[in-house]
Amino acid sequence: MATLRKQFDVTAPPAAAWSAVREFGALHTRLVPGFVKACTLEQDGTVRLVTFASGMQVRERLVTRDDAGRRLVYTLEGGRATHYNAVVEVHEGAAGGSRMTWTVDLLPDMIAPAVDAMMDGGVQAMQSALRAA
Q: Which of 13, 106, 48, 92 is nearest to 119 (CA)?
């Protein structure tokens, strides 16, 4: 099983960064605008249909939203992955900002390079969106 991990800093304080991460249906407006162009909630808000700027669509299911730990877990439904589990965590960072950790475990291993490249784009979009106000 491939494990991909991105640790990066954003200038937004943890409360603001977590507010954007925890809003499961707002990828396109709060967390990664431009990288994701649409996000539609389904099934009582536990599933989101994500449309990336490239036109690719994926369906993701919310597994856990832990406000106290500032930790969001989701999984992919359908597509090329036979297993996909993602965790986004928000921690205290330097100078009042946040340290973000985004971890994805997936199968098959052969899709890891494509997912890793997508994650790099997502990190850039998060860093841009989560600038301190």
A: 106
Is residue 119 classed exposed, middle or buried when 0-12, 13-18 and 19+ CB atoms within 10 A define those classes?
middle
* Three-class SS state of 53: coil
Nearest to 101 by CA among 56, 70, 62: 70
For the stretch 41-84, pLDDT in tens is 998 999 999 999 999 999 999 999 999 999 999 999 999 999 99
pTM listed for this prediction: 0.95
Report the alpha-carbon distance of residue 108 to residue 115 in Å, rounded.
11
Residues 6+ apart with CB under 8 A from 116: 4
